[in-house]
Amino acid sequence: MNQLEQSLPLAGARPDVDLASLYRKIIWRLMPFLLVAFIINAIDRINISFAKLRMAEDILLSDAAYGIGVGIFYFGYILFEVPSNLYMQRVGARATLTRIMVLWGAVTVATAFVTTANQLIAARFLLGMAEAGFFPGVILYLTYWFPAALRGRITAAFMMSGVVAGIICGPLAGAIMTHLHGWLGLHDWQMLFVLTGIPAIVLGLFGWFWLTDTPGQAKWLSPEQKQTLATALATEPGKTQGGFSQVLRNPRLYIAGLVYFCIYSGSNTVSYWMPTLIRDFGLTDLKTIGMVTSLPYLSAMAGMYLLGRSSDRHLERRWHLGLTMLVSAGSFALLGFAQGNAMLSIALLTLGAAAALSAVPLFWTIPPAFLNAAGAAGGIAIISSLGSLAGVTSQAMVGAIKTSTGDLYLAFDVIATLLVLGALALLIGIPAHSLNERRNQKPTKEQA
């Protein structure tokens, strides 16, 4: 037996079906598309952090207005996130993801042609509306195909693609804005939006022909494989019973939303303000800034893999997540003491950002462990929406602090405080016994 097979639930597996081969087949069919989609998604969100370095003069964009533009994206996202996820249950993942990707790609391209700060704010609001439901939709979609024993690693792999986007986006943006200024009569930042928006449209259209809504509809699985998969997923441990209305009365739903709010305040601030902070360290060359921004994402990839594997191996989520949040908080809190020392500042930023980014996939192993199948779509979307409020409030807060004080260190102190509060809320408000994951599915030390 190989490592993958040892970590899988074997209940209900047909003797003529190789369970490890079945899951490898599903992984190779679905995950490449989802990984590339999330890479493009993350790039189209954070490309504005690099465009800001040049577009601010062209459209008279202040730091405060930039913070509002970044934050209002999440206002549009929140408004349509729950309806989009609930609607996905009716029309399927294929139609939902195609619609979302084509729309967000079109809005990204259109952002290249804004001429005022207000137009940029409007474009970001429309981008939030267009993207609404993508991330929670994929998280829900993964539960249709993978059991709890694999979900930590699968979720971590999916989230790693967002980290890959962070690694790619800096050098890519630096190269586009350095070499393509004036191409087709457009400014450097305009070319950035155009060239990062088109791939979403193309991949979204491809997804219509490639994705399958449910395992039962997968023509690329044999009847025996479908039966084995259905049996394995049906034997998932019992969760909170009742439909969506009962889920709404579960206090852990809102505690999880608060925890995600705190985590997202950290990871989101890193994504949108890291280039500006690095420039404040004394680095001015766009290519250099782009390369330095890759360091936290490279570190986060290692952290996501190791933490996801460890949390799956031990089927322990809370302490893995809580300690990761505290490491991020400590690193951000120390940034102010490292002013004037560029190397130490970069090291602290790298550790804090990597921990904040690594906390996101760890967190998303928790909600499916206490939500039932009937309420999972709405519950995941509500948690994501509550967390996304951080995108509205934290970014406006960071922009206001940067405008009034001239630096970002106080803002990162506030983010550190939120991460500590989130870790305490997690460990106190979501007890271990509420996470119904099969202890008898945990692989042994030798197997893992």
Automatic annotation (TrEMBL):
Residues of the Major facilitator superfamily (MFS) profile domain: 30-434
Coiled-coil regions listed: none
SUPFAM superfamilies referenced in this protein's UniProt entry, alphabetically: MFS general substrate transporter
Name this polypeptide is given: MFS transporter
Topology of this chain in the membrane: Multi-pass membrane protein
UniProt keyword terms in alphabetical order: Membrane, Transmembrane, Transmembrane helix, Transport
InterPro entries hit by this protein: MFS, MFS_dom, MFS_trans_sf
The organism of origin for this protein: Pseudomonas izuensis
Keyword match Calcium: no
Annotated TM spans: 26-44, 64-84, 96-115, 121-144, 156-177, 189-211, 253-274, 286-307, 319-338, 344-363, 370-390, 410-432
Domain of life: Bacteria
Record localization: Membrane
